[in-house]
Design a protein that fits this description.
By secondary structure, this protein is an alpha+beta fold. It has two domains: about 220 residues, FAD/NAD(P)-binding domain, CATH 3.50.50.60; about 120 residues, 2-Layer Sandwich (D-Amino Acid Oxidase, Chain A, domain 2), CATH 3.30.9. It has 14 helices and 20 strands. The longest helix has 23 residues. The structure holds adenosine-5-diphosphoribose and P-hydroxybenzoic acid (PHB). P-hydroxybenzoic acid binds next to strand 15.
């Protein structure tokens, strides 16, 4: 088989890139290790920056999102019972939207299938060959049969555990990582959200987040120990702990119910450099991970897709390689800023096992500064809604 761009990984990065290219007449094949149902079973953050919203529309998959999403003009932050808001609209003239990543992925799958462009599931042993030469190819196995795809370029959209990043030799690859000493225990429940806005809550007992998917579907998280397992937490224990970490006014308003999903995610900051090796381009979680505080995971993947899409368009439309040559530099410039914001917001809001009294005072002072200072709020708002591409 031959294609112009082989896309490894059928998560949001690979599917979005594939859909954008398809609309411009550029052929792609998507190889996905799992099944569609498996990919759609993963629950991730649900905040989209305007750049991601625009890309969904440009890819022709924005209709349901535009109908069903909720626009959020700000967010709430609390420390104990002290609750304050940051208004994105005032500071940036922009908002974010709440639309679950699962729904984004579902819309992209539907579009891919409707377009007839190839997507292969259950691909095993995917391997990238000759990415540093002029004629790369990808090999893989499905149901015991070996296959080969020849291509012009390879998009490595296969997430943190994929093969694409590992294909870049260690002599050129540099990785930067920070692992945080706690996790997030998250639940989804068919209950109305406690507040119209998200609440990022810091408390003596640790961090909590009140988020939502729609008027009757809430997503809540609490900071937990890395040694915890979801089975250690009954629903009642989760709700009790959440109530203790959010302001009393919100705890009283909280409507609880049975969880329909419960899981623990570790928190990590990670970046690999460079994001391009010859004709291989890393995109999304394959190249970088952020802790979920601030919901930058999908949104950083989106800016990579933007730079790669435009680089490929210029290459195929007018033979101009500049966008591809500069892909890594451009993508990383924005990624590092989103990494900084996610790291800052994580440090600001969580309790650390080895935190001293002094460290705690610094956190309290910084939250108070954010509450009282318009410029600090403007910086927060600019980062939260997403820096320009
Ligand atoms: N071969 C083929 N597919 C693979 C391979 C492989 N060797 N390894 C992984 N995959 C697939 C995974 O099964 C997954 O469906 O690649 C896909 C990668 O998807 P994601 O992990 O969702 O990564 P990405 O598309 O970059 O999306 C970024 O997802 O993890 C969140 O917070 C992150 O929201 C961000 C978004
Ligand atoms: C979520 O709704 O899952 C969510 C929202 C905001 C975050 C992280 C997760 O910062």
């Amino acid at each position: 088989m031959r294609t112009q761009v082989a896309i490894i990984g059928g998560g949001p990065s690979g599917l979005l890139l594939g859909q954008l290219l398809h609309r411009k007449g550029i052929d792609t094949v998507v190889l996905e290790r799992k099944t569609k149902d498996y990919v759609l079973g993963r629950i991730r953050a649900g905040i989209l920056e305007v750049g991601m919203v625009d890309l969904m529309r440009e890819a022709g998959v924005g209709d349901r999102m535009d109908r069903e999403c909720f626009v959020h003009d700000g967010t709430l932050i609390s420390y104990g019972d002290d609750l304050f808001g940051i208004n994105f609209k005032d500071h940036t003239d922009t908002s974010v939207v709440v639309y679950g990543q699962t729904e984004v992925t579902r819309d992209l799958y539907d579009a891919r299938e409707a377009s007839g462009a190839p997507i292969l599931y259950n691909t095993e042993d995917v391997a990238i060959h000759d990415a540093d030469g002029d004629a790369p190819h990808v090999t893989y196995r499905v149901a015991g049969q070996d296959h080969r795809i020849d291509c012009d370029f390879i998009a490595g959209c296969d997430g943190f555990h994929g093969v694409s990043r590992q294909t870049i030799p260690l002599s050129v690859r540099r990785e930067y990582e920070k692992v945080y000493p706690f996790g997030w225990l998250g639940i989804l429940s068919e209950t109305p959200p406690v507040n119209d806005e998200l609440i990022y809550a810091s408390s003596d007992r640790g961090f909590a987040l009140c988020s939502m998917r729609n008027a009757n579907l809430s997503r809540y998280y609490i900071q937990c120990s890395l040694s915890d397992s979801p089975d250690d937490w009954t629903d009642a224990a989760f709700w009790d702990e959440l109530r203790r970490r959010i302001p009393a006014s919100e705890a009283e308003a909280l409507i609880t119910g049975p969880s329909i999903e419960k899981s623990i995610a570790p928190l990590r900051s990670f970046v690999t450099e460079p994001m391009r090796w010859g004709r291989l381009f890393l995109c999304g979680d394959a190249a970088h991970i952020v802790p979920p505080t601030g919901a930058k995971g999908l949104n950083t993947a989106a800016s990579d897709v933007h730079y790669l899409y435009h680089g490929l368009l210029h290459r195929y439309a007018d033979g101009d390689d500049d966008g591809l040559e500069r892909y890594s530099e451009r993508a990383l410039a924005r990624i590092w800023k989103a990494e900084r914001f996610s790291w800052w917001f994580t440090n600001l809001m969580h309790r650390y096992p080895d935190q001293s009294e002094f460290d705690l005072k610094m956190q309290q002072a910084e939250i108070a500064f954010l509450r009282d200072n318009r410029d600090a709020q403007a910086v927060m708002a600019q980062n939260y809604v997403g820096l320009p591409y």
